[in-house]
Amino acid sequence: MMRPHPGSGARLVLAALLFGGPAAPPLAAQVLSPALDPYAWEEPYQPPPPLPEGLRGTVRPNPDAPKVERIDRIAQVFQAIQACWRPASGSGYSGQEITLRLSFKRSGEVLGQPRITYYKAGTQDDRREPFTRAVREAFERCTPLPFTESFGRAIAGRVFSFRFVDARPM
After folding, report:
1. Whole-number Å distance between alpha carbons of 50 and 56
2. How many whole angstroms separate alpha carbon 99 and alpha carbon 166?
3. Residue 50, phi then psi, degrees to nearest 5
4. How far apart are CA 143 and CA 150, in angstroms?
5. Which parts of the chain sit beneath pLDDT 70?
6. Which of 3, 54, 103, 161 could bond 111 through an S-S bridge, CB–CB 3.0 to 4.6 Å?
7. How far, in Å, CA of 49 to CA of 114, rounded?
8. Measured between alpha carbons, how far is 142 from 119 in angstroms, rounded to an integer?
9. CA–CA separation, 163 vs 118, rounded Å?
C-alpha cells in the first residue's frame, strides 16, 4: 500500500484552487476588509476638518490711499478696494460695519453675487443706505481689478472677506 507524501494534500487543494476549483475570496479578504464587513470599523465616521474661511482684511476710510496699478499680492487686493471706497460725505463717524464675502475670476471681475455676512447698524439709522451704497460703488468702481496673469490664476475662486468699517472722526 502506498502512503501519500506528507504535504501532498495541501498541494492538491492548492492545485484545485488554481486550476478550476471553486472561486472564493481569500480568507484574509473576508475577515479584514471593511468593505465586506461593515462592522469592522470601531470608530464612527469623522468628517474632514473644515477648510479655512478665506482671505480676510479690513477696509477703513483713507482719502490718501494710493491707487494700485497692478495686483500681484493678496494685500494689494485690500489696498485697491480701500483706494476705491469713498464713504458718504458729511457722515462723520457712523460706527457702521459691513462684511462681504466674495470671490474673483482670474480676470479680476467679481465672481457671482457678494454675500453680506455681518452688518452693524451704527448710531444713526438714516445713514445705512448711503453707507451700503458707498460699499457697493467701491466694487463697481474698481472691478475688474488689475490682477497679473499668474496672480489671477492663483486666487481665482478663493473666498475673500472684506470688512468695511466707518471709523472716521467727526
Report:
1. 17
2. 12
3. -70, 155
4. 18
5. 1-53, 90-93, 124-125, 168-170
6. 103
7. 25
8. 22
9. 9
**Any idea of the CA torsion for 37, 39, 42, 43, to the nearest 10 degrees?**
90
Q: Which three cell numbers stand for residue 51?
A: 477648510
Residues 88-111, buried b or exposed e (16+ Cβ, 10 A)? beebeebebbbbbbbbbbbebebe
What 8-state DSSP symbol labels residue 90? T
Taking residue 161's Cβ as centre, other Cβ atoms within 10 Å add up to 17
Q: What is the pLDDT of residues 73-111, one digit of tens each?
A: 999 999 999 999 888 775 556 778 889 999 999 999 999
Point out which residues pair with 161 in neighbouring strands. Answer: 56, 101
| Beta strands at 97-104 and 55-59: parallel, antiparallel or unpaired | unpaired
Q: How far apart are CA 27 and CA 30, in angstroms?
A: 5
Report the C-alpha dihedral over residues 80, 82, 88, 91, rounded to 10 degrees.
Answer: -170
For residue 79, give the nearest of 57, 103, 100 by alpha carbon.
57
Strand, helix or coil for residue 136: helix
Nearest to 74 by CA among 109, 100, 104: 104
Is the pTM value of this prediction over 0.70? no
